[in-house]
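Hi R.,

Here's the chain you asked about this morning:
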Amino acid sequence: MEQALAEMALIKNAMADLIAANFAKMDTNGDGSLDKAELKASMADDPNFEFPPTIKGDSQEAKLDAFFNFLDANHDGKITLDEMVNGMNSFIDEAIAEAVAAGLAANTSEQ
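And here is the predicted structure, written out as tokens:
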């Protein structure tokens, strides 16, 4: 278990570095934060972008609003690098928890 936690910490650190590099590219006005227009433009520039599964909405615009509001933890209309890293880490944590739960359920059903 300790090894798994250590490996997860390494993955999160690597992801933080990747997020920081992408954040710098997304911050087109160089003010150190992302507004909704910058987030939307960066998503439009990435043909592989997909919203995390927990982001719900009837349209892409509704999903963008939900995603932005989730990442903008202090709701000041801007996403800082820390907010982006923390938000993305919460999606990673959720995905890991779902995978572990699925694995446990599979083990239970095999017994």
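One quick note: DSSP finds four helices and two strands in the chain.

Cheers,
M.
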